[in-house]
């Protein structure tokens, strides 16, 4: 499918984009001010307080729910780097898969936010038992951010890299 927003040509890339020539970046760089702000926000989420495993499980479940092939492709790679096995990565797509309680909670947060745009009281209580306030805020914002990004990627028809 042809992109609706063409990636910025390489001669117009900034230093970050040259070092990270992914289509998500080269496409969003078409709006420089918004791109810079988004990079700061997204970078904060990717380098936040949550363990990489938790972050990538939440992002992959969100990519699955939003049918975001681009997010899935990028974050399956990052999930492997975070120590998830191929079986775990594929199991994210199977809602009935068995998970350790800590992982199940992360997936439930993504599920609740996808289906209801809110957390059930039970999910919230479990989140309060497991994460401090900053961690709870970060996890909810992480899922919400990747829901938004999935819509942007799909709408702009951002192509997965070869």
UniProtKB/TrEMBL annotation:
PANTHER family: 4-CARBOXYMUCONOLACTONE DECARBOXYLASE FAMILY PROTEIN (AFU_ORTHOLOGUE AFUA_6G11590), CARBOXYMUCONOLACTONE DECARBOXYLASE-LIKE DOMAIN-CONTAINING PROTEIN. Gene3D superfamilies: AhpD-like. One of its GO terms (molecular function) is peroxiredoxin activity. InterPro entries: AhpD-like, CMD-like. Residues 32-103 form the Carboxymuconolactone decarboxylase-like domain. This is Carboxymuconolactone decarboxylase family protein.
């Amino acid at each position: 499918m042809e992109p609706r927003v063409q990636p910025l040509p390489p001669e117009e890339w900034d230093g970050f984009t040259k070092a990270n020539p992914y289509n998500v970046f080269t496409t969003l760089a078409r709006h420089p001010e918004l791109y810079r702000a988004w990079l700061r926000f997204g970078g904060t989420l990717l380098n936040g307080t949550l363990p990489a495993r938790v972050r990538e499980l939440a992002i992959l479940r969100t990519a699955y729910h939003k049918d975001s092939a681009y997010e899935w492709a990028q974050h399956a790679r990052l999930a492997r780097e975070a120590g998830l096995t191929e079986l775990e990565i594929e199991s994210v797509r199977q809602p009935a898969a068995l998970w350790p309680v800590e992982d199940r909670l992360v997936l439930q947060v993504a599920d609740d936010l996808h289906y209801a745009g809110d957390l059930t009281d039970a999910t919230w209580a479990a989140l309060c038992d497991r994460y401090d306030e900053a961690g709870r805020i970060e996890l909810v914002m992480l899922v919400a951010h990747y829901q938004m990004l999935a819509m942007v990627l799909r709408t702009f028809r951002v192509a997965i890299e070869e």
